[in-house]
Design goal:
about 150 residues; Thioredoxin-like_sf; 2 domains; 8 strands; Glutaredoxin; (2Fe-2S) ferredoxin
Length: about 150
């Protein structure tokens, strides 16, 4: 595979624990969705062995963003591929993100490359992008300002 033009690399854990929890089905679903969306030249997938988060598997890691996804299912895998295609963030099961220096546990109010994570999977705000002005404010201020709109 030529890596020229690849924008995303998905590491798909297929270690023993993740495999027992459906990693092969997740891998197949992600790869099938990538093919259906004709993204083979921009998204590369690699099956890996254990990534060390067995209790939370199946695990998928997205680079270059450095986002770790826990408890993936085939449907969540398809949603992740679709989010890459649509150039939006998929934070449904994201657990950790690389901030340029270290991996941070995703918690309410964490800014993920311009996306405001509310901590609630059902919350429609999880994929909204903030303006540069909003990013400089405290999360609690952003939340109250958004509610007053």
């Amino acid at each position: 595979m030529k890596l020229e033009g690849v924008k995303n690399h998905l590491l798909l854990c297929n270690g023993a624990s993740c495999t027992r929890n459906g990693a092969q089905e997740v891998t197949e679903a992600i790869r099938q969705e990538i093919r259906q969306l004709s993204m083979q030249k921009v998204v590369h997938t690699t099956k890996t062995l254990c990534n060390g988060r067995c209790a939370f598997g199946p695990i998928v890691i997205q680079y270059p963003r450095g986002i770790w996804y826990d408890q993936m299912t085939p449907e969540r895998g398809r949603q992740l591929a679709q989010s890459i295609y649509q150039n939006i963030s998929y934070l449904e099961t994201a657990s950790h993100v690389y901030d340029g220096r270290i991996f941070l546990k995703l918690e309410q109010g964490v800014n993920v490359n311009g996306d405001y994570w509310t901590g609630n999977d059902e919350d429609a705000h999880r994929d909204k992008h903030l303006s540069d002005g909003d990013r400089t404010k405290e999360p609690s201020l952003r939340k109250s300002e958004k509610q007053s709109d």
